[in-house]
Every structure is written in structure tokens, then in C-alpha cells.
Amino acid sequence: MMEGLAPIRTYLDCLPDDAVLVAAHRGTGEGLGAPENSVSGLEALIEAGVMMAEIDIARIRDGTLISFHDGVWEEKSSGTGPVVSTRRADFDRIRLRDREGGSVGGEPVPTLDAMLDAAQGRIYLELDFKTSADIPRVIDLVRARGMEDEVILIATDAAEAKQLAPYADEFLLSLGYRDRKPGHGVWVGGRWRDDAQETLGQRHYRLGAQWQRNAQELPRARQRLDLLVTDQITRYAPVEGLRNARAFESCLAKG
Fold first, then answer.
1. Distance (Å, whole) CA 129 – CA 51
2. pLDDT band at 69 (very low <50, low <70, confident <90, very high)
3. From its phi and psi, is residue 62 left (phi > 0), alpha (psi between -120 and 50) or beta?
4. Which domains does the chain have, with CATH numbers?
5. Which tens digit of pLDDT belongs to each residue from 138-174?
6. Which of 68, 72, 44, 45 is nearest to 56 (CA)?
7. What Cα–Cα distance (Å) separates residue 70 from each residue in 38, 41, 185?
8. CA distance 255 to 240
9. Where does 15-144 have alpha helices with state H?
10. Is residue 72 helix, strand or coil?
11. Is 78 in a helix, a strand, or coil?
12. Any idea what DSSP says for residue 27?
């Protein structure tokens, strides 16, 4: 295998026509035994050979950027109350619940710094911005590590796309804004359907999502999408449908 990661655009350019890159929703997956948006989740994905993880970014009271999905702590951690109003001293005591929201373990809620450190050169990331996230500061942290070619910035609607538009020359975006440049993708959302084909065809990279337990949907998605995000990451090969791994790696090395 190659050492490090090829630029994400190179990876998608090299992806065979009959393959789709499978990414882990919220940085973990069923059967991995790791909490959502956790460093242990990233480590488990890397160990399993998964190439990409989607993670969520939020902010606490002092401006520290963290990886957490919900706007309040209760369901996914030992904390209580709104995430954005949490003091740093209280944040440091919060521990994550398991993926199903059950028992609390000993793992802290990670800062974005910790997640980027764990991922750099090892696994691609999709960054999903929660409403509290400070986008310019997130960009600064990614730039400081030279990870611009290892992440995709997620915009799920036109308003988010407008916020991310200033970074379009550096980063691959899931959704462009106005004069969308070739190389950007489209985020289809949680229920990918065949009737999204017309929208998908307008982009060079086709970034989609599929949360359903419908194995019959995968072959259709593979024909239309370059990236498929799922909670059931262990059900699929790291590159679903890839027939010639050696040729694929050769393409990446040239890139």
C-alpha cells in the first residue's frame, strides 16, 4: 500500500468507474465499538482500512473547536446542557457514551485539533459544520497542518455553500455556490435516489449519502456516486466494487 494519502482529488480521479469510496458517518460505524466523533473511532476505521470519515465540528464557550454532533450533551455524553455554552473546565470532565448512546466510558470529547492530529496522513475527512462552528478558524487549523488536500468541506444547502465559497480554490466542497467550478460535488443527503441523477450529472465529483439498510441500493449508487457515506461501514469494502487494487494504487502513486 501507499504511504500517506494522495490528494483527495487525485483519489477521486483515480477511482475506477465501477467503484465508490465508502466513508464512515460520524467517524465510526456499527460493530466498531467506538463512540461517534471520537479519536478511538478514527483509529478503529484506520485499522479496518477505511479511507474516509465524516466528522462533525462544533464549538464550546471559550471558542475551542470540538468534534461533536448534537447541540446538547445529554444523548451522546455524560455532559448536560447546550454544547456552545459549556465552559472549558466543564468540557474537560465530559466523557463520551458508546455509539448507541448507552454507557459512558472513559474517552473524552475530542477537540478538532486532536481529530486532525489522529487523521493526518492516515484517513481522509469530511468536515460537517454544526451551527456553532467557526468556519474560518476551522480552515486555519486545517491549513496549519497542510491538510487542504485531505479533507472535503460539507455544505448541505446554498447558505452553507455561500459561507464556504471563499475557500473553493483550496478545498473540495460538497456543494458549490453560484458559478460552481468543475471538481466540486453535490451532497445528495440522507436518502439518495435514482431521480437525483440529473443533479449529480452537473458535477465532476458526485458526493452522496446512504444511511438505509438496503443492500440493493448500493449497486445503483455505485453507478452514480463517487462517495457513499454510511453508518454500516463494516458491511462494505473500503473501496466498494474495486476490481484491480494494484492498478488503482499505481494511479494514485502517479498523482
1. 20
2. very high
3. alpha
4. 8-254 (3.20.20.190)
5. 999 999 999 999 999 987 777 787 888 888 888 888 7
6. 68
7. 14, 17, 25
8. 21
9. 39-48, 88-91, 112-119, 135-144
10. strand
11. coil
12. G
